[in-house]
């Protein structure tokens, strides 16, 4: 099976860079130096190691440490040059007739301190400020090119979930089932690595847990935790054997050519208790209501509160998104090249929704000792509300 | 299949913390605040989100944000308490009768700038210095408990490689074969996530490439690159179909309960050209010579130069560890909870080998357009030289 592996088009990169430049000018930052792998890919089309210099006006310059020939091929930017060390950046910029910035923007939300110190020495006369918010705001609204790529990832998420009933057998461990599903995903082109931006967060393919183990909380900012395989990886699938009459949560990301889809479906070998079936129906009802409410202009913090209110009204205030002090304070998140993109449908968020944002909404009900039910789909924000990009039947699949 | 999932023993944690404390005193740092996930696990036994405060003498204190009950169960430290915010750390320390440090050590090689700024505000009167080298030096020498865990991971690396001949079929894509091998690894308890410390580095299960695609260079600090599935993930297995008479490189990490084994074996459907067979034999010969040379006290930089000299003497100076300016400047690396631990067998390194270090040595020969041959095993440094912990037949497996 082959997919479109072609480079990000030049016109696409141009628009992205122009949007960033506008934000740089608003913030009075004269240039950004982009070094984080995902941002670099977004603005240049390559993940090879290098530095993308974006002045507040004019052409961006991609300087590549390793691997130059590959980056040159992958990036449709005009100015791509090799560079042996970041120490050479100022000379290189001056050689090209550029004035060195007095205020330089970098991704200070992810850049480690020791590296920052190196860049501060290299740009000794510049004040280095954080432009990660500006970058993330540009990235939050997806172009039609990006939406098309996310649609493809979404279709494959549905396809992976369709395979689950064939592989789900009583007595199989969570990790064994996970491995089989993951192998199938990989054969469809899943890139393996799922990137998260938040420092200290990590995600394998996703969360596959059964019954009580899905309700075990973890360090992760997620309504589900999971026992995991050890105290080193304290989340996700573990050695629990999957039994009958318990919800099997398959919350998997499909990562295709960089773009992600986030997706949860519930399966069960045999009937589930009414309590769980009803809670699942309630989560679906919340999803349907939110899809109409979530129009451009709505504040993401308000949308979060509306979802909480809906859950309470339906009698699931206690179980919604966790129990007691283990409740997480969000109900959805932006999805794109990273799993934790802007916007966050979370308590106190003031960012308004905009057409073209792509968000994963995950109304879930947690029943300690019993399991987790609920749904997650990846949606596009449109003028009419949310359009679901993952479309596989949302009901619990009883096998 | 079940493994020992028990917590890191208290005595083990005690020794590790005492070693760090000695280094803190030498550096005149009054305390370390450990926040990076892997270091936290190493010194406390849990990966849940929190802060480990290690004064230069006395008991360490683990403060847990999320998930407290889980961390309390996993960590065998005596002092484990819940804490809602890092802002409360100074109050908490003073409450316990501790004097706030004037010099505080943190992991500045990995800690992002914005988080550092928060900690600097919290410890407003302290100078925050980097103690990542001290932490990495403690972690570089493995205890018998750790060596035992790495041995288990190594045995599973061998077991995974033994499965390859059954799955290797002409015309299968690299990613499809990769997915199948990965599913098998996962069924044996592979934790999925493989952690690297170097910022901007990432690794899935490892590298599986065939023929020419193994010789495609990438951004990664590795002799092999790989086409990868897209320009977003510019390394590793891609969509190339595996053919006959070309080397299939299976360079996989087994990650079991945190500990890693790094391991490369070469397979081929049918005979390989003599040129590649001979180069492989030369790499094995280099490995055997280095195993005798690598005794405690030898400088890692010198060991690197010895390997280069051996490769040149055997006529592989051009192909060893890359070609032309794509050569990487190392031939091995420490392995433990992360894939890029101390020591590095690399140009200019002055760290001497010590008994108890665990290193992956990977003499490889790169032939652009043809493929990669060579070997990688995980070895324990002993007084008599290297003991290989991965023991599966090192020769090319012709199928």
Quick recap of the structure?
With 399 residues, the first copy, chain A, is α+β, with helices and mostly antiparallel strands.
Please describe what this structure looks like:
2 copies of one chain form a homodimer. Chain A has 399 residues and is of the alpha+beta class. Chain A has 2 domains: 10-139, Creatinase/prolidase N-terminal domain (Creatine Amidinohydrolase, Chain A, domain 1), CATH 3.40.350.10; 141-398, Creatinase/methionine aminopeptidase superfamily (Creatine Amidinohydrolase, Alpha-Beta Complex). Chain A is built from 10 helices and 17 strands. In chain A, helix 1 (10-26) crosses helix 6, helix 7 (144-167) crosses helix 8 and helix 9 runs antiparallel to helix 10. The first copy, chain A, is elongated, with a radius of gyration of 22 Å. The interface between A and B is large, with 74 and 74 residues.
By CATH, the architecture of the largest domain in chain A is named Alpha-Beta Complex
Helix content of chain A: 25-40%
Mean pLDDT of chain A: 95
SSE order of chain A, one letter for each helix or strand: HEHEEHEHEHEHHHEEEHHEEEEEEEE
And the CATH topology of the largest domain in chain A?
A: Creatine Amidinohydrolase
The CATH class of the largest domain in chain A? Alpha Beta
Oligomer: homodimer
Question: Helix segment count of chain A?
Answer: 10
Strand portion of chain A: 15-25%
